[in-house]
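User: Could you go from structure to sequence for me? I need the amino acid at each position, not a summary. Structure tokens:
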């Protein structure tokens, strides 16, 4: 049963990695947009107001991505704990088998 649990977790771990990669790409796009907007702001008369609005847009765009990233982190912690418990239970079973042999 531990083998099947481990087999199920591997694809989920891979899915989390893929989601992290997608989030990183989305964040990169948002940060590039912010850089572009900032450069435009420096060409305007009201630089501070423009920069404030650009930062505000950046934070609003990043907020849902940060929430998704926190959810992924939580799920990954759960998976790591399950894997740790499986290793411990596997070692316990091996130890009990070793003791039963003599």
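Assistant: Here is the amino acid at each position, in order:
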């Amino acid at each position: 049963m531990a083998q099947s649990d481990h087999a199920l977790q591997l694809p989920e771990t891979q899915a989390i990695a893929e989601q992290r990669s997608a989030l990183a790409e989305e964040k990169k796009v948002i940060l590039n947009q912010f850089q572009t907007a900032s450069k435009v702001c420096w060409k305007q008369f009201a630089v501070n107001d423009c920069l404030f609005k650009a930062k505000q847009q950046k934070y609003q765009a990043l907020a849902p991505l940060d929430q998704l990233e926190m959810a992924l982190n939580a799920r990954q912690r759960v998976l790591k704990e399950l894997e740790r418990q499986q290793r411990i239970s596997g070692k316990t079973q091996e130890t009990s088998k070793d003791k039963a042999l003599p």
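One structural detail worth keeping in mind: The radius of gyration is 24 Å.
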